[in-house]
Design a protein that fits this description.
Elements lengths: L2 H4 L6 E5 L4 H12 L3 E6 L2 H11 L4 E6 L5 H6 L9 E4 L14 H29 L3 E6 L12 H21 L4 E8 L8 H4 L2 H10 L12 H8 L10 E4 L7
Parallel strand pairs: 1-2, 1-4, 2-3, 4-5, 5-6, 6-7
Helix pairs in contact: 5-6
The structure holds NADP nicotinamide-adenine-dinucleotide phosphate.
Length: about 250
Amino acid sequence: MKVDSLFSMKDDKIIITGASRGIGSAIAEFLCEAGARVTLVARDEDELRSLATRLNNKGYADFIALDVTDLAAVKNSRIKDECYDVLINNAGTNHPLPFQDVTEEIYDKIINLNTKSTYFLTQLVVSNMLREGTSGSIINISSQMGHVGAKNRSVYCMSKFALEGMTRALAVELAPHNIRVNTVCPTFIETPMTKGFLEDESFRTEVLAKIKTGRLARPNDLFGAIALLASVASQMMTGSSLMIDGGWTAD
Ligand code: NAP
């Protein structure tokens, strides 16, 4: 098989959450340029519309404005009628705080988005794959924080460790149906989510000291992992975690 066909995503129907900015919008653009038919999901309809308009100059993109933590809205959305080849669960958040300062509200906000919404959206998308009898790939954007601990990140680490556990359990359960489930685990990337944290010089220095390759990651550092997991190149991969962490977790 030629390398282009091995990694081909041409005409694949791919749905990606958290697609309006940061890592999600960069991946969506990459997928569009690769010829996939991309559905963008986030809450801000205006941002989604302007991104979809831009992406439609390069390929195909549509959008669904949706709060993925509103499980009833997710169930009633157009997603229930579509059969996607690939789901990228990327929407996520963080609110770093010392353990003693975490409130129930902040705990619920992080767990509801990073873990619970991912679980039930995956359930809906997979139900259509099973009904149609198609193969599929679920790509969960986890984090290096799904593999190590860090101060002020107790809830975020919990949420990403849970995602890692869910990924492995679903990999086992869905493999007989030819549905693969894997995670991508980035180190720090400057996005609207992390910009504020990384503006703190001492935090930035601490972070860079742990990344052996000596720089923050960029969204395009994830493209190889996404192309691998979305395509037939990874036919035998399920339950895996791809560390895009510049060696943070290597020691
Ligand atoms: P970001 O810049 O804050 O973007 C988050 C995206 O999620 C936005 O498109 C946002 O759009 C959407 N979103 C937030 N809440 C939502 C909801 N309730 N329903 C639907 N969409 C929602 O974040 P990012 O840095 O790109 O992070 C993306 C993913 O990568 C997250 O899972 C994060 O944990 C993971 N990650 C990030 C880093 C990093 O350093 N940046 C490192 C490792 C892992 P709306 O506000 O319009 O809904």
